[in-house]
Amino acid sequence: MAMRATGGCTIDRWARLGASIVLLLLAACAPRVTAERAAPHPQAEIQPVFVVTGRELDRTGPIFGLKRSEAMHYFRADISIPPTHETGRIEWPEGPPDAATDFVVTGTLVHDGPEALRRDMRARTKGRETLVFVHGYNNTLSESMYRLAQIRADFNVSMPGLLFAWPSAGDPRGYIYDRDSVLYARDDLETLLRDLTGRPGEKVFILAHSMGSQLVMEALRQIALRGDRHLLDRISGVVLMSPDIDPDLFDRQAEAIGTLPQPFLIFITKADRALTLSGFITGRKPRLGVIDDAGEVRRGDVQVVDFTSLADGEGYNHFVPVTSPAAIRMLNGILAQAGDVGTAFVRDMALALPAARHVEP
Q1: Is the peptide bond before 263 cis (omega within 30 degrees of 0)?
Q2: What CA–CA distance (Å, rounded) separates 53 from 70?
Q3: Quick one: CA torsion of 143, 14, 243, 219, rounded to 10 degrees?
Q4: Are the C-beta atoms of residues 261 and 235 closer than 8 Å to each other?
Q5: Residue 281: which residues within 8 A CB-CB, separation 6 or more?
Q6: Hey, what domains does the chain have and what are their CATH numbers?
Q7: From residue 309, how far is each of 266, 270, 360, 361 by CA, in Å?
Q8: Helix (H) or strand (E) holding 217
Q9: I need a labelling partner for 85 at 20 to 30 A (CA). Which of 71, 149, 267, 332 fits?
Q10: Which pLDDT tens digit goes with each residue over 308-335?
């Protein structure tokens, strides 16, 4: 079947896609950096990141081709943010790790199960709400830990941050492997949500990125099909950033869930080159994170916010709300106006955003 280019926009789109494929192939050949230990620096900021993962703890880099673990592991990593930190960035070491200039690990504590992790988490922070971060496709454990630490630092998050690190291959060639891993991990995410909300007053707010959004929707759907509205009511909100989900599938998942946790936000960026490539892999249909019109999400309990105008090219424009300094300044401005940058940080942000479907710099 012949393909016609009907205008400059079509040609530009295919040019961008070709460039993305070249970058993907180059990335597949590049070595991945991993988290490294270093001595603390007196002016560095320490961010405790709690981690629940099916990965073996000595596998902090790519795991493509390795057997997925059937056991969950629980630990805390103390991530040091350097005093020279720039908003939206993760400062990886270019030589020997140095807490004065780089993200480094200054300490770890392995827990023997979810109860020990929960006690440690509650002892270190006030309140009974937990921010659960679910990373996306092609992420290593090291990258995901540092990303959550960067988010907590740049947004001054005071509630505990917990990373659910599902077994992504950590390899750009592992897209299908990662999609299978999402299905493999949904029971574990459901179990984690139960562990974090089993006591009076305990709630979770879910922050998911890219393919991690697919995992979150599958877990919520599974909980709903079990008829466990009590657990769904313990979820104080959901944010899906650049969701790598077929929009039709999202509609079906949301229909099965019924009433979604509130607030429920979707952050899109039309210039997202990673999702453009994902759409090509899955049949040239746009993914949910790059839809042209917020009205394509036909639910009154979902708010769609477009960050395209704040994209700066960092990371293929695939994580704009937390990597673009302009986006972070805008979101922090909303938090300042809300008057509460504490444990309800994401909820306050969500309540302030619905009036602005398209975000201007």
Answers
A1: yes
A2: 10
A3: -90
A4: yes
A5: 175
A6: 8-352 (3.40.50.1820)
A7: 16, 9, 6, 7
A8: helix 211-225
A9: 267
A10: 999 999 989 999 999 999 999 988 887 7
